[in-house]
C-alpha cells in the first residue's frame, strides 16, 4: 500500500539497528511464520512496509501524553490513491477480508476532502504524508494518533485480549463481551484473590451461614439446603436482582419439603438459573436468593430473614449483581457484543510486532459520540437495578460484587470499581459520585473501630445522608417497605453509633438537625401515601427523593424533649414502626399563612404582624413575607392557601438564614399536637419578623 520512507521528524539514527543483526533475522522469521489470522489483517504492501518488524519497531516508541518532542513521530509517504484502491481490491479478492490499515487511511483521506478541500474526491495520482505516533496516558493506556497531511485525524485507544502476545505491552483490554467464558471465571478468581490483600477489604470468611441456601452442586437438580443450626464452615454466594414481576414458584411452607429434594428447572427463572451457573463455575456450592431462601407465604419467616439481611450480604463470598436484568426472566449471562457496539466504534485490529520478537494484535477503538446537531441521548441507560430500593443495601453491604452490567462485567469492593479485565469504559456509565459506597471504617471489627473524633463523625454523618439521597429516589413494589429495605444499612451504621437510638429513619444523636430534611422533587413531588409508615417528622413518611439541609450544630433554636417510636417487630428495631410515634420538642412556634400558588416555591406570609409595622423597612417585608416553603408531599393542605404554624429550628448567622418546620394541627381537640407538612427557609437579614421571633418565648409541642 505504501512506499515507506521515514522522515527526519520520525526517526533518529539511534533507533535503527543493522538489518543483518540476529534480532532482525529472528523478527523476519516471526513475520514469515505469523498466524494467518494476523497476517491477513493487512494487505501485502502494508505487511512489507508499515507493519514490517523493522519499521514497526521504529514507530513503537510510546511517549507520555503531553510530551511534545518532535522525535515521537513516525512519518512516511503513502502510495498513490489509485494504487491504494488496487491493493485493497487484490487483498479482498484473495482473502475475502479488508486490509484494516488501508481501510482506516482511506476513510480519513476521504473525510479530509469532504470537509476541508474544494475537491470532493481524492486525486488518483496523489500521495499522502502520514504521521503516526504512540502515546501513553497517566493510566499507561497506549493510544495511536494518526495525522494525514499534517492535519489531525484521529486518536485510538489500543486494546488487546488477555491471552494475546501483545498483552504484555498494552495494559488496556477489550471490553469483555463473553461474561460466561473460562477466561472470565479466571479473572473473577484473580480479582477475589487480589481483594484479600486490600487494606480495607475483609478476606472471605465462613463465619456465618444463612438459614436456607440453594445447593448448586448438581446443575440439573438444584435444591434448597436448610441449615439445621450447625453452621457449615463453607462459603456462599448471594444474588441481588430485580424481580420485575411476580414469581409463582417461590419457596413456600407448602413446597419447602419438595424443594429440599430438588427444584424443577422449569420453576427457576433465567436470572436465578444464571446465578446458579455462576456459583457452580466458581467452584462454590451454595447460593442465597430471597425468593427461594425465604418462605414467601410466611410473614414471620420474612421478618426473621429480613432481620438477617445485613449478616447475609456482609458475610457472602461474593454478591452477584444482575444489574442489566429488568425482570427475573431476562438473565444476565448473554453476549454483550450488541451493547458494546452501542458504546464504541470498532476501527479494526492490526498486527503488533512485540518488542520481545513475538507478534500479536492491537485493537483500535474510539468512543461513540452523538451525531452533531442532534439531541444527545444516553449511550448506556441507567441499569434497572439502580432503580430498586432493596438492591441498594444489598450492594453496599456486600464486601465483593460481580456487577453484570449492560456492557460487560465489573468487579467492585471497598478498594476498586472496575471492569473485570481492566478495560476502559469509554463512556461514564454513571457519575462516580453516585457509586454507592460506605466508609471503610464502618466495616472494621468493633474492637478496631477508632474512637470518636470530629472528622470521623462528620464522615459518618455525610455517609448516612448520602445513603438517604441515593436510597429515597428508588422504587418499591410495596410502599410499606420504605424503612425495612434500608434496615440492613441502618444496622451496619449502628455498629459505629452504638449509643444512639434509631427512630423511624432518624438517629437520636443527629436530632434535631436531622429534622431538616426536605423533599427534592420540587413541583414533581409525590402524593402523600395512603397508609401509615412513619411519623410525619420522618423522611420515611413520604415517597420520593429527600436530602438533609446541613446546618451543623451551631444556631440550634429548638431541643428534643422526648421521642417515642415502637418497631412493628422487636426482632428488627431498624424496620417498620407502629402507628403512634411522636416527638416532643421545645421551640418557638408562630402562626402563619401559606400561599402554595405564589411565585417560585410556595411563599410563606405572616398571619399577624408580631411587631409594629411602622418599624419595618419600606420593602416587600411590608407584606409580611417570611420565606419559602418546601412541601413534603402533594396533599389537599399543600394545594390551598391556609393557616399553618411554623416551628423555628435553626439559624445560620453567617449566611443570615433561618430554617424550620411547617406544621398543621393534627387534631381538633389538642392545641399543641401537630403534623409536619414541609420545611421553610428564610433570609432574615433586615427582616424584623424573623429577628423578633428569635427572641420570642419557647413552648413545648408534640409532632406526630
UniProtKB/TrEMBL annotation:
Taxonomic placement: Eukaryota, Fungi, Dikarya, Basidiomycota, Agaricomycotina
Organism: Armillaria luteobubalina
Protein name as it appears in the record: Heterokaryon incompatibility protein-domain-containing protein
Residue ranges of domain Heterokaryon incompatibility in the record: 236-394
InterPro entries in UniProt: HET (IPR010730)
